Amino acid sequence: MAATARTDAVIVGAVRTPIGKGKATGALHGVHPVDLLAHSLRALVERTGIDPALVDDVITGTVTQADEQGQNIARNAVLAAGFPESVPATTINRQCGSSQQAVSFAAQGVMSGAYDVVIAAGVESMGRVTMMSDIRPGADPFGEALAQRYPDGFIPQGHSAELIAARWDLSRTQLDEFALSSHEKAAAATKAGRFDAELAPIAGLDHDEMIRPGGSIDGLAQLLPAFYDEAMGRRFPDIDWRITAANSSPLSDGSAALLIMSAEKAQQLNLTPLARVHTTTVVGSDPILMLTGIIPATHKVLEKAGLAIGDIDLFEVNEAFSPVVLAWAHDTGADLAKTNVNGGAIALGHPLGASGARLMTTMVNALHQTGGRYGLQTMCEAGGQANATIIERL
Predict the structure, then answer these.
(1) Which of 79, 127, 199, 325 is deepest in the core (most CB within 10 A)?
(2) Which Gene3D superfamilies match (predicted)?
């Protein structure tokens, strides 16, 4: 039997809101998360000119699926955006990689022939829906069998970041220098208008709210460690506690959406593809270190794609914490000069379920600005997982 020709999944539109502080004082705090996502969906339709009735599905990443983000927020936002009632939607959770996984599922659906037109999106309002509020006080999300496998128990991500900094021998100064660089790059990108094409202003906010250029190593050195506690100090006596609010990503609000379809459908609709989804993968990793899965995920996606690290023109690596990106660069050999060239989550923010779609939107935009061919995106995820995706600019 002859082999079936592959159907290319192409990105024809990508948009995001500016990212706001995930606090009561944030510019987007007054926006209900359903409306926050609906805004990106409407902007995507307006900018591409697509008839929303053609959309086969809307796949949305959201991490804390509780309260205002419960009840399948994807479907609620589709209706709030004014899409026809015939357009379905589903909400998924792969922790911080949720909307990068949404992109993967969307592309895989197109490649398999299950979809012709699909939207991958993400949303998180961390200021309105508190992280971990989907677990009621006193509830055990792990169960007895898992506790037997890991009798010492799991640890918060901040402590995992501390373990990574210690294992890769990354100094406080190195971590803070990386954080300062993220802010400087994001500020320069904002000033130069490099985010303009991807932003859909909302609630009077037309820029990412948390960028703070002009900091100094001496200034950041005054900050106390953010995650120290006595019990963890006894469990990990060799940690010298160097993770602070400055070299971590802040609580954030935002949404993003990408329109993905087959190359044939894009041609029929007279839409210009921006990039094709070249290769996707996801891996599991040590749930204690938790945040190092981006290293094997990068190796795996490159091997699947038949590419080398030197073939990649731009990298987007989620800056959950400074040591995550620095350890990844050390072990993969990736060039930090090609990584998060417009700044990363330490400066821009990390609205959990929205971040994967936000990074992809930014990477598509940056590839066109720089003329690069291949972009690689990867994100660490709670529980020890990581997505990696390679796209090719068209």
Answers:
(1) 325
(2) 3.40.47.10
Q: Among residues of the chain, what percentage have pLDDT more than 70?
A: 99
Exactly one of 96, 159, 183, 278 is catalytic; which is it?
96
Helix, coil or strand: residue 252: strand
Question: For residue 394, is pLDDT > 50?
Answer: yes
Asked if 110 contacts 123 with a C-beta cutoff of 8 angstroms, the reply is no
Q: Could you say which of 159, 207, 350, 368 is catalytic?
A: 350
Residue type, position 82, single letter: G
Residue 4 is predicted with a pLDDT of 54
Interatomic CA distance for residues 258 and 36, integer angstroms = 15
Q: Can you tell me the mean pLDDT for 272-294?
A: 98
What is the distance between the alpha carbons of residues 279 and 265, in angstroms, rounded to a whole number?
A: 20
Sort 223 into a burial class: Cβ within 10 Å, 0-12 / 13-18 / 19+.
middle
The DSSP 8-state label assigned to residue 136 in this structure reads: -
User: Active-site residue among 39, 183, 278, 380?
Assistant: 380
Active site residue 380: yes
**96 in active site:** yes
Percent of the chain with pLDDT over 90: 95
AA letter at 111 = M
* Rounded to 5°, angle at Cα 98 from 96 and 103: 130
Instruction: Kindly report the average pLDDT of the chain as a whole number.
Output: 97
CB neighbourhood size of 188 (10 A): 15
How high is the pLDDT of residue 2? 45
**Identity at 294, one-letter amino acid code:** I
Contacts 24+ apart (CB under 8 A), 261-268: 261/9, 261/10, 261/12, 261/110, 261/115, 261/116, 261/117, 261/118, 262/7, 262/8, 262/9, 262/10, 262/110, 262/116, 263/7, 263/8, 263/10, 264/7, 265/116, 265/117, 266/10, 266/12
The pLDDT value given to residue 232:
83
Q: Which residues contact 8 (CB under 8 A, 6 or more apart)?
A: 111, 262, 263, 276
Report how far residue 197's alpha carbon sits from residue 47's, in angstroms, rounded to the nearest whole number: 10
Distance CA 207, CA 18 (A): 5
User: Sorting pLDDT into bands at 50, 70 and 90, what band is 1?
Assistant: very low
207 is catalytic: no
Per-residue pLDDT tens digits for 306-352: 999 999 999 999 999 999 999 999 999 999 999 999 999 999 999 99
Q: Where are the beta strands (DSSP E) in 108-263?
A: 117-125, 252-262
Question: Which among 101, 26, 4 has a CA at the least distance from the CA of 61?
Answer: 101
